[in-house]
Amino acid sequence: MITHRQLEHALILARIGNFSRAATEANLSQSAFSRSIRNLEDYLGVALFDRSATQVSPTRYGETLISQAQTIVADVRKLRRDIRQMTELTSGEFSAGLGVYPAEIYGNLAIAHMVRDYPGLIYRVFVSNWEDITNRVLSRDVDIGFVAKEGTLYDRQLDFSPVCGHRMYVYARSGHPLAGKKHLTKEDLDQFPLVSIRLPAAIAPVIPGQASIQPVSGVLIPSIEVDDMGTARSIISHCDGVGVAVPMQIEGALDSGDFVLLDFPTDNLNPMFYFVTPKGRTISPAAGKFIRRVRSLDEEAEEKNQMIYARYTT
Asked: Is the pLDDT confidence value at 58 over 50?
């Protein structure tokens, strides 16, 4: 078997033309260097260098080897350089698929921090529902997913690493008929359309508002289904629809008085978020940085949500 190191030794010897000086450049003893060249010749079954008392020069076989070895060694050096740059995040690509809620709570902020710290990367970020993001991870269209886990269909093909759970609350426009009323029930809220993305089966039974549940999957389909929370907030601000959100998602509208939190118990409205990767696949250095960045933002986000909730419910 020919090693990369043997090819490097052959190139050094062809350039210098002397075993002693070539061994010094290769940082080897002369005997070790000569053995490396001899093993290469034994493997190929030909003499690669003509030796004389004053000069060492490639044979015709050696010239053929040197010509190809130059390309191979250059390619390996480039590969090492590219891998080093990827490891140090000075070049390469990073793609992430974010669920709508995880994106708004701190997924987008984690990406922004990475862009600030690692500007040499090329970024691709997709925000969609958990079904689409899971499929993107399965097809390897993204390096990592960050979603609210749903179902067990994909458990044998994917690894799920838990991040956190942030309690959601029901909100509406400040002029909503239920604004300011105490001790609301699900029946009270079910009179009004739910404006939301489709929601996982795990929390579907406790979500208030007009919606339907798919018989097989258990997924909740709101009566006004949207693809992103910005659209949901815009619709809710102009009608009597209701929505569910983590407080920091609607902080600005709460501050301005456009939205209010409705007095509805949401103890069970606490979906867990997960990092999703193909099972058994080593994650990229960039994905590892993203995971650590999200985890560092988790505690801060929880404290902020509790402060916002306390400010607008007391």
From this structure: yes
Residues in the chain: 314
Mean of the pLDDT values across residues 201-226? 88
Question: What tokens were used for 244?
Answer: 């569910």
For the ranges 85-99, 114-128, 217-231, 252-266, the lowest mean pLDDT is seen at 85-99
- The sign of the dihedral angle between the CA atoms of 213, 261, 241, 249 is negative
Listed by start position, the domains of the chain span 4-86, 93-165+272-313, 169-261
**Helices 60-87 and 285-313 sit at what angle, rounded to 10 degrees?**
10
CA angle 129, 135, 140 (to 5 degrees): 125
pLDDT at 314 over 70: no
Q: Which fold has domain 169-261?
A: D-Maltodextrin-Binding Protein; domain 2 (3.40.190)
DSSP per-residue letters across 46-85: S--EEE-SS-EEE-HHHHHHHHHHHHHHHHHHHHHHHHHH
